[in-house]
Amino acid sequence: MVMAESHLPLFFALVAVALSVFYYVFTQYRRLPPFPVVNAYRNDFNRAKAHHEYQTRARELVSTGLAQHHGRPFTIITPNGPKVILSSALSDWVKNNKDLDHPALVRDDFLAGYSGFNAQTVLHEGSQVVNLIKSKLSKNETHISVMNTHITGVLDQSWGADQSWHSIDWQKDTTSLISHAAASVFVGPHLAKNPEWQSLTNKYVMNYFTALGQIREWPAPLWPVAHLFNPLSRTCRHDMKRARIMITEELRRRKSEETHSTLPYNDTIEWLSAAAGEKPIDLGAMQLALAIAALFTTSEALRQTILEICKHTDIVSPLRNEVEEAIAQHGWTTAALIKMRLMDSVMKEAQRTLPASVGLERKALRDTMMPDGVKIPAGTHIAVDASLMWSPEVYASPETFDARRYLDLREKTGSPAHAFTATSKEHITFGQGRSVCPGRFFAETDMKLCLAQILLKYDFRLEETYKSTSIVMGFYPVVDPFVKVEVRRRNASRI
Ligand code: HEM
């Protein structure tokens, strides 16, 4: 039978769809690593059920996999592709293995190289931003006063001087505190106070991560096309251009100022420019790179710490006393922040009580043999079970928030191995090894300054009937974004 000419386009369209589906199913299954899958289900051709199970029950999938396979590697299917989970007994091996690479994994998972996502590209392809964080951003005394001024500004404006209890905008205010303090060192005081810059950097971070989720709802071969038409990706492309323009204007403004002032700027714009010398650099993308690395991570850690303090009101007084003593003795300096050891312990314990299910995510750059001789093929994504963070064999009463847990360990052992910025396989929130988070010292400074000012200036509490619940998103939990917190300005303050 001859097909009517008018049906030909439809025929070709159907063939194209069938080939795409075949290609998708084929590539998805071909990509499975040679380890048993714990979330494979009958007739789940598009993996909708596998993804749903991952999004809602990742931690159970990890513990089930470990139990079922007696600690041997197994696979969890995620929207980013299959991840091979290794037992925590292998964390030292992963940490030290040069064939297992963190930046390569991030480039795959976070679509580095896509237009508008250039922030991720500069963060995990070049080494300029990571080198800058390691050298200039860590433990730099000169940041403290400028960061403090910006924190004061945000608190005065958002929480105010009202001495009666009033509600705050939890997500917005906590983000704003971290974002203003960080920006004062990233782009300097002028741009940090610019509402357009603040809105652009925060919006970019949220839009970028949301766009990634939306793009991944499509079959992998269609991601580049989905990205082209995704409205949030389009906004990222626009914001990337705008960031570059704003940085260029800032550089021009500084140049015009030079005749009036001899004061050098002490921020990442200057440091990155100096390090690049004559080589061209994308300062706009680098600034958004710092934003995606620093803003959400640190403001989440701040929120989780404030939430735990709200739930354990008995620690407010000791924390305040510690801050007052440290500031009275050392002023607002690094020495004062180092003295805030109870606060350090509270921050670390807050991280422990909202842990990710896995850590040390890596990509195998080439075939690599595990200590028992089993091969992890090149290209495989791996992650290490993080359950030591809540194991009763490591921590007494692991389900309980113990504000002094790490302080007591520090005092008992006399070792800084239990400080907020220290990492170990029992506390892998900042990772370990070559790619251990280089921004953790900066995060510590940012968080301690925010918490110290909040404690000295405000009383704060959870609204009486509010019960907070964290949100699970696969391996990573998110602090309840709807927490209802009330504050009132304190009378007495030595600040
Ligand atoms: C409490 C806040 C933060 C948390 C929980 C956090 C967590 C992490 C984790 C888990 C890694 C991967 C480490 C590994 O797998 O071994 C990482 C890497 C990284 N972090 Fe952070 N981070 C935080 C704050 C920051 C800040 C403030 C910055 C920048 C100023 C930053 C910059 C980076 C960079 C550039 C990397 C990639 C390092 C590399 O690939 O070599 N982070 N972070």
TrEMBL record:
It comes from the Eukaryota. The keyword Membrane applies. It holds the Pfam family p450. One of its GO terms (molecular function) is iron ion binding. Its cofactor is heme. Keywords: Heme, Iron, Membrane, Metal-binding, Monooxygenase, Oxidoreductase, Transmembrane, Transmembrane helix. Heme binds at C437. The chain crosses the membrane at residues 6-26. The keyword Magnesium does not apply. PANTHER family: CYTOCHROME P450, CYTOCHROME P450 MONOOXYGENASE AUSG-RELATED. Belongs to the cytochrome P450 family. This is Cytochrome P450. The lineage of its organism: Eukaryota, Fungi, Dikarya, Ascomycota, Pezizomycotina.
